[in-house]
Design goal:
This protein is α/β, with parallel strands linked by helices. The protein has 13 helices and 25 strands. It binds flavin-adenine dinucleotide.
Length: about 475
């Protein structure tokens, strides 16, 4: 049935049910708006179905396997358990289904109407949703939120075929372990995949055109990541680019000349493109962005058009998408909300995990701030030794004059959890004195944050050598 010009008036229309869109929809409904959400594929978006959750599930298994294998001295087995990726996939699907059910229930319980189908603008305030092969439903909206997310960017020399050349989401669906694998892209996603498959037993090469892995993070985190990857057995090829496939190998241009790597499977993690091209923005007279939408702090593109998540400029992270969704929902509900997060943390769930929040020392100095750095190696912490994280560390960056915390960077241990303490401290404007006065439980990694503060104040209790006002 083609509904033609028959169209239903709706209040708020949200396009996309990922972490940006579903949060915007729920919050707008909680604030009293009547909300319709359109999703063409699966609720939860990339994050739940092919990104954060499946990726971290794989890393959990890979990390546990390698940890068990390394515990012989502590009296535990000593052999790495065998890997069954078919069983892993069933376990992963059960986790994803459970979380998808929670989202569905949340939307339903909040009174959000969910329409299944692919949306496309069909007029200034009109969207058509393809609900079936030959049926389109039209909606006239008062406000619209574009939360259609992103898709993997291809590499011209290695086009995706969904089998041998995969995007990261497809790699997380594999039911057998590749004997050899080449990952293109030293971004967090590429690094996580290289790390996980190496620990599971594949022979992995990680190739990146840049000088270092995860270049957006603290330079010492990049070094820690590279060192750990090499030690785990990843063949790391920086300043290198793919030329194409040749039979069972992939051909790489490296600074030392051409190299052929065996590659049963190839993963391309070369960034993500906003999913805007299918929306026909012109039909709604919305000017398409050159790359991604530049939104104001209320997430507006135009008066009645909002955008959140991966379609907006900035780090493509699920928690940023959800934070934007929350604010957009509140603005739609007439609240005086705005995006004013001081920091958006980033975690790389590789082995070791890495985490970062706020300024690096380099970045702060480039911005004209006078800063210093205090550092605690995990090797001096009871928890660091027990957890096999003695090579890890935590570091705080603070303003020299005031002692105000500006950034925190963690390599190893429970980096992803530990960074939360720093995020709270930075958001609340804490100084080194504040951090040093806080009592943290023992033995935990959290002791590193107060320990770094004490070291920065010139009275270290964990280590004599670490944590001076050393510059990086
Ligand atoms: C392998 C991998 C691992 C990742 N790990 C992490 C991590 O650990 N932490 C983290 O913070 N981030 C991670 N990310 C990034 C994170 O997944 C994204 O930043 C996040 O999903 C963006 O949310 P979003 O709501 O903007 O878009 P998406 O999650 O992409 O959701 C958009 C939704 O819109 C739907 N849609 C698109 N077009 C239309 C249309 N025309 N009509 C109807 N529906 C439409 C799509 O089907 C999709 O469900 C990872 C990404 C990948 C690929």
């Amino acid at each position: 049935v083609v509904a033609g010009d028959q169209s239903q008036p709706v209040d708020c229309l949200v396009l996309g049910g990922g972490p940006g869109g579903y949060v915007a929809a729920v919050r707008a409904a909680q604030c009293g708006r009547s909300v319709t959400l359109v999703e063409g594929d699966r609720l939860g978006g990339v994050c739940l179905n092919e990104g954060c959750i499946p990726g971290k599930a794989l890393m959990e298994v890979a990390g546990l396997r390698s940890r068990v294998a390394g515990m012989a001295a502590a009296g535990l087995g000593g052999a790495a358990p065998p890997v069954d990726l078919t069983a892993f996939q069933a376990w992963k699907r059960s986790l994803v289904a459970r979380l998808a059910g929670e989202i569905e229930e949340l939307l339903h319980g909040s009174g959000v109407r969910v329409v299944r189908g692919w949306a496309r603008f069909a007029g200034r305030t009109r969207v058509g949703v393809r609900t079936g092969e030959e049926s389109t439903q039209y909606f006239d909206f008062k406000d619209v939120v574009i939360a259609t997310g992103s898709r993997p960017a291809p590499l011209p020399s290695l086009p995706f075929d969904g089998d041998r050349v995969c995007d990261p989401g497809q790699a997380l669906d594999w039911t057998d372990l590749p004997t050899s694998m080449v990952v293109f892209g030293g971004d967090p996603v590429g690094l996580e995949l290289a790390s996980a498959f190496t620990l599971l037993g594949s022979d992995v090469a990680l190739v990146d055109p840049g000088d270092r892995l995860i270049p957006a993070m603290d330079a010492d985190l990049s070094r820690a990541a590279a060192e750990a990857a090499r030690q785990a057995g990843v063949r790391l090829l920086l300043r290198s680019r793919p030329r194409g496939m040749d039979g069972a190998t992939v051909v790489i241009d490296t600074p030392d000349g051409e190299l052929r790597l065996p590659a049963a499977r190839i993963v391309v993690s070369a960034g993500r493109l906003p999913r805007l091209d299918d929306l026909d923005l012109a039909a709604a007279r919305i000017r398409p962005p050159v790359d991604r939408f530049e939104v104001d702090d209320r997430l507006r593109v135009e008066r009645h058009v909002f955008a959140v998540g991966d379609v907006t400029a900035g780090p493509q992270l699920a928690h940023r998408a959800s934070a934007q969704g929350r604010v957009a929902g509140e603005v739609l509900g007439g609240r005086a909300s705005a995006m004013d997060a001081v920091v958006v943390p980033e975690v790389v769930f590789a082995q070791p995990p890495l985490a970062s929040a706020g300024l690096t020392a380099e970045g702060a100095r480039a911005g004209g701030l006078e800063v210093a750095v205090a550092h605690v190696p995990f090797g001096v912490l009871g928890r660091g030794l027990i957890s096999g994280a003695e090579r890890g560390w935590a570091r705080v960056v603070y303003e020299l004059d005031t002692g105000r915390l500006l950034g925190a960077h963690v390599a190893g241990g429970a980096a992803g959890e530990l960074i939360a303490a720093a995020v709270v401290a930075i958001e609340m404007g804490a100084t080194l004195e504040d951090l040093a006065l806080i009592v943290q439980a023992h033995p935990t990694f959290a002791e590193a944050i107060s320990g770094a503060a004490e070291a920065g104040l010139g009275r270290p209790l964990h280590t004599v050598s670490g944590g001076s006002r050393a510059t990086l």
